[in-house]
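To whoever is covering the structure queue this week,

Two jobs came back overnight. Logging them here so there's a record in the thread.

Job A:
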Amino acid sequence: METLVTKLLHLPPVASAHGTDLDNLMLYVHVLMGVLFVGWSVFFGYAIWRFRKSRSPKADHAGVRSHVSSYLEVAVAVIEAVLLVGFAVPLWARSASATNFPAEADATVVRVIGRQFNWMARYAGPDGVFGLADAKHLSGANPLGIDPDDANAKDDIVTENSEIYVPVGKPVIAHISSLDVIHSFAVRQMRITQDAIPGLSIPVWFTPTQVGVYQITCAQLCGNGHSNMRGLLRVVTQPEYDAWLRSKSKTAAEPVSYD
């Protein structure tokens, strides 16, 4: 959805529920920085003119007696505090706090794994339960180490073609991790960015509001192929997502299907 803010800041159209609040916060910060830039530039120019050598040939060791600049600094600090406490902290709390994090039963859960130089996505399949994984099962055909003897893994789905499917209008919980170096999972239209760190699984969530195809990029320099580490986030309707999930599970090879 394109808004006045996205036009002013030259941002891509927002396609997530929290994106508008984030865009508004960025606009407020830009406005504050613009006012500060103009204000301090005018003040600097006035100081140069007011205290020029021709007008003040002899130094005044007492200096400026006015407290206008002090008042301005206090005002700027107050405005910054309002932006932080009134907008930034509540926005972060709504997105990151445990109390506001959606329940997995009410969300689409996907594990997103970065590696040089593509994205992998793992889904639990129709049963909604992820199969076990262990490093001892790692191989070229099983890069995630999924246990082939675990019954819950039989319908798990792993896509290696950097395509991630999610339904529209439903919270998505993405557990971000990496198989090698530090990557960063970013979808600009969803207004999400999260580092993918080896050995960690970091959850991030968002609610897509627009059906469409959105580019996934890596926002962290990760090697010579960094610029090619792109993918597609496909936001589809719930029936389309369910059909895709069923089709992938039916064609799953042991222990899991690979695209």
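Job B:
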Amino acid sequence: MKKFAVIVAGGSGSRMNNNIPKQFLNLQGKPVLFYTLKTFLQAYEDLTIILVLPEEHIRVGQAVIDAYFDYTRIQIAIGGPTRFHSVQNGLKLISEESIVFVHDAVRCMASVGLVRRCYEEALEKGSAIPVIGCKDSIRWISETGNEALERENIKMVQTPQTFHSKLILPAYRIDFKDKFTDESSVIEAYGLTVHLIPGEENNIKITRPVDLIIAEYLLSTN
């Protein structure tokens, strides 16, 4: 089945104390975005990437594509005011039945194996949401106080969140709500359930300077 990966690259460098958007920061001589795009292109030869960028960053994003990749496999869409709207804009370029990955551009350490597992599970179950366990103690804070939660029942959600096009395309036609923090929350608001699969500990998201150091180490040990 045809495969599309909507790569959302709307982040800024604010938490990195840097004016350069996180997806363009240097990681072993190449931009963070390079590693993300490379993984998906290596996973499947018939996969097309839809790279969603803020309008002001399209020129830089195109330069990354031109420098390292076959431009015929990568399309660019303009981002929106929220993640929901950015994903929505990317999905507008998909019209055929397919499996659709939605991935954070700054999760540059996701493996080819994870991408393929997400595809196989979504093909069978309709969706595949990679998650990992929570190592810390968790407390729920309410107006009346706080209480401990069973961390075995808490999962940390990653990307790529992967769906059959018959689910995600109609789901993203609903109106935006503030509670939409990721794609699975949109699918659930549409009235569907999602299927969780094991994620990867190394599938980190580059949000702070220390994350870049960790990614450098992981790349050097692969």
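Note for Job B: The longest helix spans residues 112-125.

Please reply-all if you pick these up so we don't duplicate work.
Q.
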